[in-house]
Amino acid sequence: MGRIFLIASGKGGTGKSVFASNMGALLAARGSSVVLVDMDMGLRTLDIYMGLESKVVYNVYDVVSGLCRIKQALIKDKRFQSLYLMAAAPRRDDGRVTPLHMKVLFRRLAERFDYVIVDSPAGIDEGFLLSAVSAEKAVIVITPEYTAIRDAEIVDKVLSEIGIHNKCYVINKVKSELVASGTMPSIAEINGILRMPFAGIIQYDDNIHVAANNGLPIVFKKDTYIYRNMEKIVDRIIERR
Ligand SMILES: Nc1ncnc2c1ncn2[C@@H]1O[C@H](COP(=O)(O)OP(=O)(O)O)[C@@H](O)[C@H]1O
Ligand SMILES: [Mg+2]
């Protein structure tokens, strides 16, 4: 069975979707089969970050409502071998999807793929809870801001309440000069607040932003500091020994 990871944050805009696309692409580049599941219904982004928006026909809702088979909703990435995307629905359609639906879908995907990476919506409501139903581990993506740290604490608590105890966090969009000048919370300060393992930091880098918005996970380019850093973070998350 494949492993299911949830990418969460509480706060919007911390970089969950960029992180999910790069974690998926990196694992695929290293030879694993990976499916990215976009659970941000109504606000889908992963198709754009993967450059696959013109390929989307069916989405997660179509699969769970029986409109299509799983295979029909799996969009193959153009550049990475065995990397697939299941897109989010264009609208936030309430009521039709239950946790049981998602459990069945995630199990089927885990039977086919080594890794199932679930990109969750911001917040802690229904959409988030549906994303989390089968996760083995949650990766909470924060930015060095007090609002993001507080939201991560809340997400941590909600995840514990639904039985997900294996968690870690990544600090994204770090601007070292702002941390050095004391205008952003330091890594040590964040580590003191969040009670879960720390998987690493990702610098704020325009290249990450530009690549994502051009439909390319930045780890496509190997031999960069970003790739090497992402490798270390992913290894800590998957606990590769
Ligand atoms: N490390 C980074 N450096 C620069 N820009 C980033 C970085 N991570 C994410 N971004 C940008 O931040 C914005 C929000 O990212 P996104 O992944 O869509 O957030 P979320 O899924 O948490 O709402 C996007 O414009 C993205 O390009
Ligand atoms: Mg997102």
- Biggest β-sheet description: 8 strands, mixed
Distance between the termini: 19 Å
Oligomer: single chain
Total number of strands: 8
- What helical percentage do the residues reach? 25-40%
Number of helices: 10
Strand-residue fraction? 15-25%
Order of strands across the biggest sheet? 3-4-2-5-1-6-7-8
Please state the overall shape, judged from the principal axes of the Cα atoms: globular
Which fold does the CATH topology refer to?
Rossmann fold
Mean pLDDT: 94
Tell me the Rg in angstroms: 17 Å
Counting helices, strands and paired strands, the structural category is alpha/beta
What is the assigned CATH homologous superfamily?
P-loop containing nucleotide triphosphate hydrolases
- Unreliable stretches (pLDDT < 50, length at least 5) are none
Identify the CATH architecture: 3-Layer(aba) Sandwich
Give helix and strand order, one letter per element, not per position. EHEHHEEHEHEHEHHEHH
CATH class: Alpha Beta
Structurally, the number of domains stands at: 1
